Amino acid sequence: MKIVTTFHPTSSVVASVKCCLTSDNDLEHLVVAKPNSVEVFTLTLDGLRKECELEIWGRVLALRTIPIQTGSKLLVLTDHPDPHAIVLEYHTNAAAPYLSTESSLSLHDRNAMHAEFCTDVIVSADSEVAIVSCYKGKLKVLSLEQGKIVESFDVAIPELNLLAISFLDHHEYQLVVAHIDAQRRIQLLSRELEFSAREISAEPSEFLPSTTLLQSAFPFPDSPLHLISVPAFEYKIDDHDVKADGGVLVIGGRQIQFFELAHRQQQRAKKDKRSRLDKRKTGDNEEQKMKAKEKEKERNTRKVKPRASVKWPWSEVAAVCNVDFNYRRILIGDKFGRLSLLTIDDKLSLIITPIGEISPPMTLTYLSSQIVYIGSHYGDSQLVRILPAPASSVDVDTLPIPSDIITSSPASLTQSEKGKEVMTHDGKDRAKGIVLKLKGSHVEVLETYRNIAPIVDAILADLDDSGQPQIVTCSGENSTGSLNVIQTGADFLELANLKGLSEVIKIHPIRSRFESSIHTHLLFTTYHESYIFRLDDRSSLHRLEESSTGFITSAPTLALSNITRRTLVNGKSSYVDSSWVVQVTAKSIALLEFDDALGVFHKVGSGWSPDRLEYPLKGNDIVSADISPSQIVVGLAGGYLLVLTTNDEGQIQVLRTHSFRDEQRQAKEICAISCQPLDATKFFTVHIAVSFFTGNTVAVLSLEKPELQVLCESTALPSLPYSLMLHNFGSGRKAKDPDFRPVVLVGLTHGSIVTFNFKDNGLHDKKVLPLGNIPVSLSACEVDGRRAVFASGSRSTVLYWDRQRIRHSSVLLKDLAAAARLNSSAFSSALILATESSIVIGRVRGVDKMQIRQIPLGYDNPRRITYHSGLGEFGVASRQITPSRVGDAESYRSTFNLLHGQSFQRLCQFVCEPEEEITSVCALEHLDSSNPVFEARKPTFCIGTVYHRHGEREPSAGRLIVFQESTPDDSSAVGSKLSTLAEIETSGCVWAIDVVKDMIVAAMNSSVVLYTLATNPVIKPPVISLHKLHEWNHNYTVVSGKEIKSVARDYGPLWPVAVEALPDKGVIGGNADGNLFSFALERTDQRTILSQNGSYHLGEMVTKIVPGSIAAQETQDVDVFKPEHLFFTSSGRICQTLHVNDERISLGLTALQHNMSKKLVGAGDIRHSKWRTPANRYGRSDADAAIGFLDGDFLEQFLNQADAEALLQGENEAERVPISPAKMRDLLEKLQSLH
């Protein structure tokens, strides 16, 4: 059984609206629809504040508002195979705002054909009717009362191929429709919805004269159109006010056209003409009938001239939105993110004003005060402000405008004395519209919302040799191509860097007084000595000499800390603030005091040394130490532990002594000590943690009795315990407090961390987390206001308490020798870190978050990527697009780029031939090239291409090219690092390439071909070429020797778009219908078969499947959940599949999901079991339930359920889950920690 969990949620945006969701009209909201969720934001003076989010079990296509008196409701339309109309209501009367289903309606019709171009929903101005288009030849009409669906019915519509549909503003249930007719012409007409008769008018309405849109203005019939209904307005003709009844803007071709609605007299005249024509058609005179039909045909093909138009200078329109309520100003964005403003002026002219470049929009929403929300599928979503004056690039055109577009300057639009716009003498014909030419960008980006969609390709690569791979995705489209480097963990913000201080193994910050929160000095320890520095300001440290400090600098410092001053009041200890500091070295303990007036430290008393002790302790070196606010705990050689304290005069005294011996009475040598109080309000500790070299164990001791008492001791750890910490991650003060979280953490010498929960005087829940191969040091810190521990070694991580368990979040730092918390006047709430050659000060932010580093490539859209770990370089195939105007051919070129693995700087580039595109790439680092020729000419990368030739239904030509590392004198080099080693022409598109032993395997059209690199010994120097070994044509293959044999195959139609091998000789994949599937090899008596053992509806198209995981995993969790694959979708979602190793747990989770699916219902009353049932474009089969996969995100909702135990019990004995609530919670928390 496999579990599917979400690692990165869907980030693409499909729709957005601005509305008031409550009765308070001053409180405005932005609602954003993603493919699988709806999010609500409140508009505030500080920006957008997220209120709530609702998951939608279906693919969201459209989002509309239903305005009512008590606040708007939301109408969501989901896509096939189960189209639904869902009305959502916003609630604020709970502890937190939320969305709930008000009503819903299934729109599924198994016998109808899907709408090819227009799947949309529109709402009438009175909020009483909504119309849905999702099937050919019919519309679904929804009757609404107070935003609730109360009735629905179907109406037939003669227009089969709708392109767009809209209500005519302020005209009751009049529809404007654009469609493609049988001759592939775009027709624009209006029809009336006769609600009482439950039908659409058989004849076009006379409100809008029917017309055929010119092919010269709209060259591509299947391109999206936008119809905007403009209400009635007044304009001037020769200084006379003329009232227009409104009209329709048609946006989406080479022109923007405005068609005016017919006046009442024109409507009556046309209606009379139609009546007379109908009479002639139904009369007895055959000649008159023929003439009437010819006349009707002529009228249907008649082209009505638009009342106003303007040439559209850029590419296909992607999104539009109105700026004001009278629809006289409209923002338009094209698919490359070029934003402009369309204005209908008082002369009834269309004016286009370029504004600037944004992300390619899927949706535009004007909020207020020139602020616009841009929701994008191809780039980051943005919140931008439109500026009246250019903010940047003032010497460059705001947007490039083709030379065949006649432009005007803003100065050509001047103000007359009456304040009305008139044209100066250099103006053009206003009826043909005006395109203004401006300088500079008028866009200011206020906020960016990261989006990694669409993910076209992805790989896992260990870029920094840390042992923890990172995801690199090929994302974006059009003008926002990018590579995204993704890693989970916390972000580290570097604030300062001090070079030249090397070999530091410990850092000790010092305060001027115990109760002060500001660190004023730093003591650095190396293996041989110590250094003391004063923190002067943000840019400097001042080193102090030993003679002026009193500190022991000639030896390493084992421990150093500020302490309180302990006094006796009426025989009881009292702790007061002091300026005392304790320093522990191998030979002695020193007590120092800070002089505020002079700003120096001086010694107090005579200190303490083991030489004062009696035999056998006398003279033993101090090997480890730790200091609490009032106690000094040291470990002596020979396995002795001493607890010391200071008196009021500054004398250091021994309070207790303990000797550690093993079963053979041999000394247990102490390695590390931790004695920080678990109760942060106390000045002393009652528990001490001690680790031992002997036996590699950890023990916890109690100070509550006169004699030190060992409470518990661990079993042997995997290696020597290098560092130790007893730490309370919660705010509780004692065991009975709900937030009391004591944990023992051990850093091992071989690079792992071991954690134990310390409860009931015992060590429980052992967990091991690998961090590399060098010793791990531990230091307490605070991250984002929560208590944490920073662990550093080969890699670094932050440990914290969350969801009832210790969790860890990786930090992008490696090979640290020491770390400590720092809170100085210049660097508050920071960490100070020691590397091999420098000191770094910084701040950790955002634990358990996904860190995304974006490498923008602009118009270079990455399509395929591979990584050569030996070279530390990426091979990226890109498709560079040159924007063009609608109707003009877009030019592109395909390139293969070699990028540096750290900086992503382009090292060299290979450019394909015209009409050739790279379709696959592969790094050849695992190619077995034992031929001596390859020693000097090492193959590094291989690419496969295809030639796009006009009229071909299937590609007939391509190339396979192998590159090598170039030498400085290589004449065939295409850059500083790459040259062509061998190439061969292919008979089709090379879809995929891989390496098996010494062979290159290429998937080509429907064939699989084996190639090898061969040399011709006759030619000197030897020439290397690609030689075909074998070609095979079928579905599933394996390589055996030098030929391909079919082991097993499946004949069912899958339409796969991504496949990958499973560890157990199986196959996992995703198909074009948004389903996951898996197959396993099974042996029968006669043959081996490929049996389908998994099928699951994901709801998004998987574009890539990669083996592995990037989440650092605790070693014991592998026994239950084993990460297998990451898969990526076109909407920016990244998911992890995990194999459940325990059959009993697998059955328990399956039963739990079954019980939960009966209790928890999704938006629109959709059942989880139905949502995950595999689907195709025709719908779902009741007989084909999801098998082989469990929904991890759904199962994790168990952790938030109040009736969790009831979900385990089920409704009868057969449904009871045989796992205890505590065990189930622990399992799901482990699952949650893995993504």
UniProtKB/TrEMBL annotation:
Comp. bias regions, Basic residues: 267-279
Coiled-coil parts of chain: none
InterPro entries from the UniProt entry: Beta-prop_RSE1/DDB1/CPSF1_1st, Beta-prop_RSE1/DDB1/CPSF1_2nd, Quinoprotein_ADH-like_sf, RSE1/DDB1/CFT1, RSE1/DDB1/CPSF1_C, WD40/YVTN_repeat-like_dom_sf
RSE1/DDB1/CPSF1 second beta-propeller domain mapped to chain residues: 496-843
Keyword Nucleus: yes
Domain RSE1/DDB1/CPSF1 C-terminal, residue spans: 894-1018, 1041-1199
Residue spans of biased composition, Basic and acidic residues class: 280-301
Principal place of residence: nucleus
UniProt-annotated location(s): Nucleus
Residue spans crossing the bilayer: none
Source organism superkingdom: Eukaryota
Gene3D superfamilies: 1.10.150.910, YVTN repeat-like/Quinoprotein amine dehydrogenase
Family: Belongs to the DDB1 family.
Protein name per Swiss-Prot or TrEMBL: DNA damage-binding protein 1
